[in-house]
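The data are quoted verbatim for reference:
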Amino acid sequence: MATLKEVAERAGVSQSTVSRLLNDPSFSIKEETRRRVLRVCEELGYRNVFRPAIAVLDAPPSGEKLQDAYFSDLRKVLAECAESMELDQPTFIRSIRELTERAAEFDGFITVDATVFPEADLRALHAALPHGVCIDTNPAPHLFDSVRPDLSQTMLDALDAMIAAGRRRIAFLGGVGSIMGTHDYPANIRTFKTCAYYLPLAGIVASLVVFLLTVKIDENMHDRIVEQLEARLASEETDKQ
């Protein structure tokens, strides 16, 4: 296996530069140099011995153990990625306050689930462990980084697929999001309406049924969604009579 000295010599930098680049996220270096060092590491097959300790903040709302397939897959993928990268398995922590108290044990953290955290707890966590990445949602954009899907494009793709299938009366099922745990915003609903309105469909989407999902997220969610839809449709038919 290649050594740190070999990487430094081929990249034309000092060994300390290579070491700090690979082990210190705050280390400032020219982008060109950073890319050159990383390319040399890949070419020589150099494996950094630094194994960061990563925590996963997995705190479902109200302490419930949600059976949400999406977030369950995220947890599984996190564990698989750690194994494939030969990292220590991440430590799953169920409370933001526990993570704050144990911050000295970790180099960074990742969050999953769409839990709403109090603003004071988010600020305290950032002060103790500032290196955090939120997956899918970001309750504190100015405190932590996030990796999220392109919901606008996803909405467009979904509407296109529904219309291509001949659907004309399309419903949206969703909830609300939060920023810093204080401001609820039905952003998904607004995106749905906007995408449907601006699509060049000449009025094909004749009616948009939009309402918040009020069922508990678990393996029986589908049945309860159907029950809600049936009740709403029955109510609308009664109103028309």
